[in-house]
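Page 47, continued from p. 46.
Same chain as before, 268 aa.
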Amino acid sequence: MIHKLQHATPCFHSELKSYVLQVLCVICFFFFNNKIHAQVDDESVISDNDFTSQLWFDLNPSWDVGSGQKINGEFGYRTIWPKSWQRFIVRGSFQSVLENPLLFKNTKHTETVVFGTGLFLLTSKTSHNSFEVRPFQGYKFAFNISPRFVLQQYFRAEQRFVFSGAEDNQIVGLRMRYQVKGIINLEGVFFEDDMGFYLPVSIEGFFNLIQASQFNDVIRVTPGLGYQFNSDFKLEGSLAYHYTRQDSEKLVRTNDIVFRFRIIKTFR
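Result:
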């Protein structure tokens, strides 16, 4: 019996991978179909306290350069229903795990410094197009609470430079971000080692010291589900709630429901 189970295991894993991919394809088709058939005027203007639906796609490659150092990339696309704007994102960063942590020296954890820059191109039907340059610096703490649960805290400072044709465009912005993220790892449960599902859940607050003209987030709550094919390749989906101030010229607050899909790949 054991011999038969050992031979059946690779087949089971192959079928499971195929099933996961099929489910992801069905989900993508469902949201695209809703987007295409939405019976809403594309020229609708977002009003104060509106609920919006957004779709985000991200490709997140990274390159492990050794000694706890990594180069991270991001290529993203974001849009809203009704389709009044779309956003294209390119972001790059460098991170390094500190060999000698500065804080919490008597606890088992890792500390990581991060810095990089993001480029954001916004095209809009209801307002001016814009281009944003966003340098950032961050500090992460990751605690291994148990073999299957990681708790991470991430502090980040962002300098925002927004260039737009609007007369009242606020070019310079500065904000702080604080994120708490928990990850439940299910790798190896009913799967081979380094394979399986994981559950990421995060809450992030935004604190504007100088408010820019667009997308001044207040809070994000993001539960998700990911599948790890191996230690270097993951697919992740999330359904998030964002509370956002859209403009600085007038108070336009929105409650955003964000469907996000990510492809995460590490090259060594």
